Structures are given as C-alpha cells and as structure tokens.
Amino acid sequence: MNIFALFEQRVADALASLVASGALPAELDVSRAAVEPPRDPTHGDLATNAAMVLAKPAKANPRALAEAIAAELKRDPRVAKAEVAGPGFINLTLAPGVFQDVLRAIIAAGPDFGRGLKQDAAPINVEYVSANPTGPLHVGHGRGAVFGDALANLLAFVGYSVTREYYINDAGAQVDILGRSAFLRYREALGHDIGTIPEGLYPGDYLKPVGQALAERFGRALLDVPEEVWLPTVRTAAIDAMMAMIRDDLATLNIRHDLFFSERSLSQGGVDHIRATIDDLRARGLIYEGRLPPPKGQPVEDWEDREQTLFRATAFGDDVDRPLLKSDGSYTYFAADIAYHRSKFERGFRTMIDVWGADHGGYVKRMKAAVAAVTDGKGELDIKLCQLVRLLRGGEPVKMSKRAGDFVTLREVVEEVGSDAVRFMLLFRKNDAQLDFDLEKVVEQSKDNPVFYVQYAHARCASVFRQAREAFPGRDFGPARLAEADLSVLQDPGERDLLRLLAQYPRVLDGAADAHEPHRIAFHLFELASAFHSLWNKGKDLPQLRFVNQADQQSTEARLALVYAVRSVLASGLGILGVTAPDEMR
RNA sequence: GGCCCCGUAGCUCAGCCGGAUAGAGCAGCAGCCUUCUAAGCUGUUGGUCGCAGGUUCGAAUCCUGCCGGGGUCGCCA
After folding, report:
1. DSSP states along A519-562
2. Does strand B come within 7 Å of the CB of A235?
3. How far apart are the C-alpha atoms of A470 and A243, rounded to whole Å?
4. Cys-Cys with A136: which of A101, A409, A414, A489 at CB 3.0–4.6 Å?
C-alpha cells in the first residue's frame, strides 16, 4: 500500500471530474502532477503541485485552480484537511484511519511489505563483478559486487524477473598471461628453481595451488612440449581455479550469480557469435573500413595509422567510431562485448544493467551505442559506475603496495569485519561517490556506526516483544492479534513520525528501483532506525510512552503493532541490502 | 586537448526526472545521566548549495560557459 501512488490516482480522479464539469479543458497532460511528502511535516501528510503544473496549460490562476482541486479532494473521507498554500500547493492531512490502514497492511505482509509493488515481471539482466579471472577480488570489486547484488535484490523484490550475470573475460591476452604464470608455478611444483617471477606475469601466491594441481594431474608431461600445446590446457585449468576462488570470495558476501557467461564461448563452438554480430551490423551499414584520427592531447608513441574495421558508434552518440579487429586480425574486447550484449537481448532482456568500476567510464558511450545498434533501439542499457573505495584503519589509509600481489583482498576484509558491515557500508553511499571504508569504525558498537545503529533498532524491536511476553505472560502478540488492536491511541509526535516513515517505505522502494539506486534504502532505514531509537529514548523520561506498559494493555497492543511494523520494514530493507536483521546484538 | 564523474555546514555525506524556510551524522556549544527499555540522552550554533549567465510562476536540481578536484583517452580487459 503506497499512499503516494494512491493519492496520485486520487488527484488524477479529481482532475478528471473537474474536466467533466467543464472547469478544466480536456486533453491536459497531467503527468507532471506529483504527490510527495511535504518538506515541512507541519504542512500535513501529503502535498501536490497539480495546480501549479496545470495552471498554465489550463490558462487558470494557480491558486484558484488549487482551491477547486482541494474542494474536490475534500469530498474524500480519507482526506481530513486540504489546504492551499504558497504559490498553489495543496497540502493534505489524512484521516488517522489511513495511517492505521497502512500499519495493518505492513503487519499483514511482515518482511514482505513492498514485495511485488511494481506488478511488472519484465525480465531485467544485471551484470556485475565480471572481474578478470586472474586473481582474488579486491575491495574495489567488492563495491561493484555488493552494489549489483543489492540492486538485483531490489529489482527482484519489487517484482521484476531478474537474472544476475557475470561475464568471464577468458579470451584475451590477460588469460594467456595467467596461463604462463600458472605454468611457472607448475614447474616450481616439480622442483624447478623459477627464481623471481618475471615482469609481466602474475606473481601472487594464489597460483601456487594451481601449479601443484597441474603437477599432480600431468606429472612432467607438459614440460617438454611447446607452449602452443600446454598453454590451452594450463590456461583452462588456471581460469577454472580462479573462477572457483572468485565464486568463493563472493560467497563470503552471500553473492551468487545465476549465469557465468564465458567470453570465449562467443567465438568457440559451432557458431561464431562475434562474426555473426559484425555481419549483422555490416548488413545494416554500420561497419566500414577506415582510418581513425590519432587521439588529441597526449600523443600516442607507437601510433600506427592503418585502415581498420570500424563500428559506426558516432551514429549513436559516441565521439569516435570504434575498432572491432586488432592488427593481428583477432577481435577486440569491444567486438566481443557487443556480441555479448546482443546475446542478452536475444535472450529476452530489453532492460540491461551493467555495473562497472569508474575507471571504465570511458567505455559507457560506445557500449550504449552498441546496444542501441544491435537491438535496433529496442534495448535499454543502464551503466552504473562505482567509484573507488579508500580503505582506512582508524582514520589512516591502509597501505596497499602495488608490488607483487601484495594487496588487501576482499576476503580479508570480509573475514575481519563481517559481511554485514561490508555490505551496509558499501551501500551507505551513492554509487558514483568516492567512499572511505574504515575497518575500525564499521565494527564499533555505537550510534556513530550506521550498520550497528540500524541492526540495533531491529534487535530492540525484538527485545520489546520479549519484554511484552514477560509483562503479559500467556498473551498473544502475534500479527493477527496486533492487526486488531485499537491503533487510534498512537498520537505522540514520535509515533506519528514512525508512521510517516513507514508509509514512505513503498515510495522509497519504487524510487530506488526506478533510479537503480539501492543506497536510498540504506538511508531510509537509517532514518527509520533513528526515529525508533528516539521514541525509545523518550520512554526513559516518560514511562507512559514506553512500548510495554503493564498498566495499560490497550496502548501496549497498539505500540506493539507499531513496533512490529518497524521491525518488518527494517527486516524487509535489510533483506534487500543483503544484511542480516538480528534479534539481539550480544 | 576531447569525454565522463564530482564540487552542498569546520569534516563525511544525503537531497538532484524543478517546488515551499536546503537536511543528517560527526565535530563545536549548552544542559541532563544514584539510568532501568540495551552501547548514553536532549537541545542548539553553523550554509552566497564552486562562480557567472540562461530557461520560468519557481533552480542545489535543467541548459551554457568558466574555475577547482578525480578518472579516462586506437589494437589491453
């Protein structure tokens, strides 16, 4: 139950009846009329700008129009007050029954409150992480991982049919290097002295077990054959091992993809999908052989001006046309990525979301151009860039030497502070803003730590119920019983604040899902927790405000209903963020 | 040099598909704390929303230009 959507419809109805009575001209575009929470709560519960938006097209005075709309809205029994304010706002104060209905709806749904509110099962593809299978994930990957996962959770929660996808870059030069690095470890496992790892190969210890396994599986058989022979075998084994490790790393954050899509699979097997994609584009005149101007600014030293196969990206908003074949004739990464996104579209996804690191920002335009071309404008790609994470400990940057695989892995961080802290903190910031992650602060049990603060609110809710059962032994405080409580006693400003925030939750979900911004949920939960703690604290000085009051069963029941709703929304939101909702903090 | 992101209180950041007097946390300041609801509580100071134009009933929000910070810039992934 989303009271904002509800009353948006109500306003539309009011406008329709004004049209019917001739007070407004027909064929008005009412799409800009919105119902929002007023900035100042003393203005009421809802505000609409309908009169101001329509005044000009209707050639009417905004305040007069507002009066007419307000009069129409006042006929609704759910509207206690409709006042015109300022330049033509209509402020609505709702009948108390509306909020009581909201509360009952939350209690009925529990942690599922808000689920399926889009009533739209359209398939959406979310591609995230997609890190090269050449080593363990680091914290930067973690941000994209958590962001993509929470976004996928959110979209699934509100009703979309979501597929979580990971694109494995297993076809380029990087994985050849991986293969050679693993081969070195293989020789090492067989007792060869490999000395220091040569420049350009991966030096990390994590390849040692891969070498071991190869030695056990192949003995010395790979030693005396040429690279063309051993490389495919070693490479595949190394990629498999790296992907297993990455999957493990992701599992520590409870992240599981539905599909791991291999880049290599695009051009291997029966059909060369990259070739097919290029042919398709060529048939539509979007491919040509031509030359590119060298980049302006920084001169490229080994610039080789040559004729190459280009995709006409400029026809779709990109700055230059983009090459599809390297000088050795093999496909560029971009060519493969076009084929990959084409495959997403062919698999039924009109909406695709890619989650990338900010360092890939330069590829956004060309990828969007490619999707527009390859889907003939029918597919929609949103690319979310995640900014870098600065790892701190007690305010001091954690040293991350770029040398020799000596970096802080995601796994180390999760093992130190826990999945909940990592997930919540990475989501408690807009994706395109830089983020400081302090290993000390995120485990602090204090008001200053948002993770703790929000989880603690949930635990306190659970605690209230434990106390209630103690104070009223044998009484039923289950949701069915609470839904029948007399909720009209919830009159304290603190209680009304909570009701207001609870009622806003579906609107937050809706907006977060549309904008692909899960952080909005984290912020709303923080607000809700804050209002809840504040009401709890009020009970310290004013015992009559306590949730459990042995002398007053009626108010206890009403407040337990409120607490149950707070708990449900916290659990719902934390669930979407992938953070646990504990019943106690000890 | 081109493109992208960012610039909001002393600090860290929300708010940005236009809406009313721009919000939160921290820090600061002032109280409360022999508390019984659980990791303190309550109140409060503080901002030319980088600058300058434009669009309009209305701009932190949209457009243009500039300033400052970051990223990125054939064939790597």
Report:
1. HHHHHHHHHHHHHHHHHHHHHHH-GGG-S--TT-HHHHHHHHHH
2. no
3. 51
4. A409
Q: Which CATH class is domain A123-172+263-386?
A: alpha beta
What's the pLDDT at A400? Answer: 59
Amino acid at A79: V
Mean pLDDT of the A89-117 span:
94
Q: Which pLDDT value is given to residue A299?
A: 66
A166 touches strand B (CB under 7 A): no
Average pLDDT over residues A464-486: 91
- Cβ of A405 near strand B (distance < 7 A): no
Q: Is the CB of A38 under 7 A from strand B?
A: yes
**Strand B: which residues 89-108 of A lie within 7 A (CB)?**
89, 91
**Nearest alpha carbon to residue A366 among A326, A330, A312:** A312
Using C1' positions and the CA of A448, the closest nucleotide is B25
Two tokens, residue A115: 């689920």
Per-residue confidence (pLDDT) for residue A298, from 0 to 100: 64
Nucleotides of B under 7 A from a protein CB: 1-6, 12-15, 17-26, 35-42, 57-58, 70-77
Q: Which fold has domain A445-577?
A: Isoleucyl-tRNA Synthetase; Domain 1 (1.10.730)
Q: Which CATH superfamily is domain A3-94 in?
A: Arginyl tRNA synthetase N-terminal domain (3.30.1360.70)
Query: Strand A89-94 and strand A123-127: pairing?
Result: unpaired
pLDDT band at A403 (very low <50, low <70, confident <90, very high): very low
Q: Nearest nucleotide (C1') to the CA of residue A444? A: B39
pLDDT at A453 over 90: yes
Inter-helix orientation angle A493-515/A139-158, to 10°:
100
**Contact, A460 CB vs strand B, < 7 Å:** yes
**Smallest Cα–C1' distance to nucleotide B19: which residue has it?**
A49
Amino acid A351 CA to nucleotide B63 C1' distance, rounded Å: 29
Average pLDDT, chain A: 91
